[in-house]
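Practice problem: predict the structure.
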Amino acid sequence: MRGIVSSIVACLAALCLFTNGLVVADVATCSGIVPMAYRNDKISIMDFGGVGDGRTLNTKAFRAAVYRIEHLNRRGGTLLYVPPGVFLTEAFNLTSHMTLYLAKGAVIRATQNTRDWPLIAPLPSYGRGRERPGGRYMSFIHGDGLHDVIITGENGTIDGQGDVWWNMWRQRTLQYTRPNLVEFMHSRSIIISNVIFKNSPFWNIHPVYCSNVVVRYVTILAPRDSPNTDGIDPDSSSHVCIEDSFISTGDDLVAVKSGWDEYGIAYGRPSSAITIRRITGSSPFAGIAIGSETSGGVVNVLAENINLYNMGVGIHLKTNIGRGGVIRNITVSDVFIEDARKGIKIAGDVGDHPDENYDPNALPVVKDVTIKNVWGYKVQQAGSIQGLKNSPFTRICLSNINLHGAYTPRNSPWTCSDVSGAAVQVNPWPCSELTSTHETGECSVPF
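Answer:
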């Protein structure tokens, strides 16, 4: 174990700063959100009979190791080391005060035996599974009601082997909603870093009803035609920092959510204080998305220094009649987009409904949105802003935006309706609903 310990210390030292037995996040990044705990107690999955041959099922080994961490409850927690090798396993839960550490060359691979996959209750803010009525399959790596949990390492891999699930979705043989790759519920003080996530059955990383979450230095990969493989989806969560990561998937790279129609309205937990920065990626859908499930509200989001290529939509705020909720104080800045169907889209007619019981009078409110310092190349349409007749989008600010593409009379640069706000230094010039301003720099939007 001595060599294992030295390699772990070297990796953590490269990531963070050590102070009094704790590792404190770099002040230039996610400072103060979650301290990185250094675990004196360290065990290996091999101590519990782990076999990394890619064929042996390691479910008992992972569950036994987590059980040991939970019940011995060592002061400062315990680190579970996964050495190089391919460790096939069914879904398993984590516990509090735990670090799951993947060495270089380590792979935790999900079994494709879907018949024995555990089922759990639907999220209360969704009222049912996101894809199918009823419950849903538990995420591959799962945590509920936890705190002080870290998933990190030396860029080892968590592989969901999602193709069997994608095919079930395509063939319409799913009985329940597909599992996420990693999900934390009702949890706090979570760090996910320096790991590769690939081929998730559904959404990749899903913190829901969580607070103080850091996701950084991760790589998330899935084929462009893999359905609903969102990268990172903070959902009804607060104080979340996502940064310095590469994401290439079949759906939105980062999507902030907060519940679905009447269920999200009743649950009433917003997503707030979300920071997204230095993300690079590619997708047939959106790079930075808000929604479409926003019924609990989404407030105080900052996304900056984003590089997107081969995209469907660069920046997408999306909601719908029946959602309710407030989308407010959203800032997206310093974005580069290369080769996209649309640069910017803010829409009030996106997304489906969980059932027929949604309230058509529950109209979303979208206001105080600033998008600035955006440069795009080979963008087919600059953008569209389509508010709702009975709930127009207000105080929308576009500033210092240049989106270059092949525009035709049948594909106008901008389309807008039921929106008010301002624009400065936008090329091509946006729709007339956004008041022009002669100021340099920020928009002048009346409050």
